[in-house]
Amino acid sequence: MDHRIDRRSLLRLAGVGALGLAAPSLLTACGAGSSGNGVSNAGKDLAPWPTYVPFTGPTPDAPGDDTGVQPLYLKYPEKLVRSVNNPVGDGSDVTVMVVSYGAPPKPVQDNRYWQAVNAALGVNLKVTVVPDPEYGQKMATLMASTGDLPDMIMFTNLALPHAAEFVQTRCADLSEFVGGDAVKEFPNLANIPTYAWKGMGRIGGRIHGIPLERPMPANSLFVNRTAMDAAGVPKDWTTEQYLDAMKELTGDRKWGVGWFKTLFGGLGGITYHAGSLGAPNTWTVDDGAFKPAIATPQFEQALEVMRKLVEAGTHYPDSLTVSSTDMQSHFHNGTVASMNDGFGSVSLANLNKINGRFALDLGRPYGPQATPWQGAGIFGYVTFKKAEPARIKLLLRISDYLSAPFGTEEYELANYGVEGQHFTKDAGGIRTTDLYGQENNSLLPTKYLGTAPAVLYLPGYPDVAKAVHDWQKATLPRSVRNPGTGLRSAAEASKGAQLNQIVGDGIAAITFGRKPLSAWQDVVAQWRQAGGDQVAEELAAEHAANQ
Known about the structure:
alpha/beta
């Protein structure tokens, strides 16, 4: 079988998109024009972040904490509370555009979930669902048009040129509605942690969106704990033990490492390896100056580990052509013993696909001075078309309802549908029905208009929930945040693709043996000259302005 590697595949496999310096963070990448003065926060009066008012919900079986550990629930709350006591909508149509990673939803007249959500919200949601492969082009067309906009537009973490200018010019400024104590009018939005608002960032000092919160962990190493235990692999491992484990788990048409071609965390996940070896998360701030992680010895050590994995043949041989969906299937059926994926893959849907074949766990970082990388704390954000204040408040009430926390009636409807139709309850908690597989908030992505802060609740899989909670407690206290999250740089917006290519080509060439490890210093120098140092200077100015 021919496994020769083309340059584009190498770039994607290198997982460069995991680095904020190569694939700019959500609002950092949103385009700052030639100068960035309009959307920059430097020198602007900053709207206050929304006041955080946490929801007092059901008592968890194990608590969360400020390091990002999520509250653990081993059973579903027996009694739910209402978090929205006033009418939401006015019976009007509300047009929406959201991304989708699944099949199109059934039409509203055949979709009981959609009908129930419309009834609860008191509006007629008219949803345009854009498949993920088409999302970038669809958004570019929308932003270039001069026509009417949807009432609510969801932005993902995909870097879209000039998105910040578009949002600033054509979307509502929400600062007066959610900044500071004003957010208390919308209690479920006030329950969104501050880190999520900061992860979204301001535009020109103002708040223009509602963040879609995600847990603190970044791209994570998913492992087949049953296979690991059978091979005698410890949970806490050294670098050599990690490498030995991947070799031990390779053979008889099974492989230790499952890579797939993706811009976000491929090749075993550069974030996992760099964080395991103590590299700072994308940047470090030293006396106000931004310095790139790629220039650190720890990052170079991570490249060496990835190169050793390639040399040992521990990776799935068709990694260059296999899709992420197929690689996930290979992990679910035990063909590969580990794979990197977003933390959101700790889900009931994926556990059902594993179907009891093995115990799912997450791999702990393997270095003695590990600095596990945190994510941005968001998946994206939702903006509103400019309108009169009464209309903006209606749209905010929709996001508020859909952001209702675990333990509320609104959460149950938004996430599971209608009891007796989409789910039932027993001593084990929520049991989804076959209808739920056809009608849910993934196929009709209402979760991208508002989402609750995530908790650890995996009905039917309490042991996995406990294992993930233990992993969080062992990992997150050492984790580090990217200081550039939520900031913007005009140089990064205009030169990001070029910087991406430089870093990606360098990682790929070294990892797959086309160049020696010593060549990495030349890659860093080229990156600096191509605009990396300018990005660092602009992020430093933004960082100072946001203190």
